[in-house]
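can u do me a favor
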């Protein structure tokens, strides 16, 4: 664990040639890892992004609004494609489970979705949600990822990280996100993360809402202060295998 206790932001080769981002909803990937993805854009690695849920249906209560939900899901998936394409990442996977209802699916079913994606892509490193997030879909995604990456089953997954999602990770006041690994970002990296998030037209809010451009920059500055850099993204190393 020693090598992960210091900042090695500019030496990310240990992540391997294949990196997978597992997100509960479209936009979680950008909020959690957008700076890292911008930093890795010119590296010789392949990145695969997996979306478990659709991220919109929990906003609608009336069953008669089914057509609206379908349109919003398509719209949000299009946002995701555009944001990732901007960062040089193509062909994300959309599984479109019902937003806010992951607890209605058997955990093993979500785990199998993730496991099948892993078996197909064979990543050396996976980034997923934090177990401490306020959002229950995030927690279930974390638990399902942990299940799918048990070392005895998928030994090619060497590194497993959690990322934080502003508007969820910081709102669990009793058990907040506690990073142990920091990746420094240049101003250019941060600007690219923000630009990628701006593709999500329905998700941008005004400051001081957590989903504002100012809030994203403030968090990057705060994580930078913690690690002696100007800007950072922070992660929690769950495990690393030789």
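np, heres the sequence
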């Amino acid at each position: 664990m020693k090598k992960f206790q210091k900042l090695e932001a500019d030496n990310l080769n240990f992540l391997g040639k294949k990196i997978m981002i597992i997100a509960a909803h479209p936009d979680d990937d950008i909020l959690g890892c957008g700076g890292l993805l911008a930093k890795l854009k010119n590296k010789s690695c392949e990145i695969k992004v997996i979306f478990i849920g659709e991220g919109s249906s929990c906003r609608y209560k009336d069953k008669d609004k089914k057509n609206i939900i379908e349109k919003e899901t398509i719209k949000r998936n299009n946002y995701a494609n555009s944001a990732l394409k901007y960062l040089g990442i193509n062909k994300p996977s959309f599984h479109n489970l019902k937003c806010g209802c992951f607890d209605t699916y058997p955990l093993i079913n979500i785990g199998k979705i993730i496991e099948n994606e892993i078996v197909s892509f064979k990543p050396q490193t996976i980034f997923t949600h934090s177990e401490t997030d306020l959002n229950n879909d995030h927690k279930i995604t974390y638990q399902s990822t942990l299940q799918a990456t048990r070392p005895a089953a998928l030994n090619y997954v060497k590194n497993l990280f959690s990322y934080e999602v502003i508007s969820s990770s910081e709102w669990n006041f009793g058990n907040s996100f506690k990073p142990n690994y920091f990746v420094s970002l240049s101003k250019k990296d941060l600007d690219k993360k923000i630009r990628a998030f701006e593709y999500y037209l329905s998700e941008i809010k005004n400051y001081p809402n957590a989903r504002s451009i100012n809030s994203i920059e403030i968090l990057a500055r705060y994580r930078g202060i913690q690690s002696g850099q100007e800007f950072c993204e922070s992660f929690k190393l769950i495990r690393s295998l030789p």
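Residues 66-86 form the longest helix (21 residues). hope that helps!!
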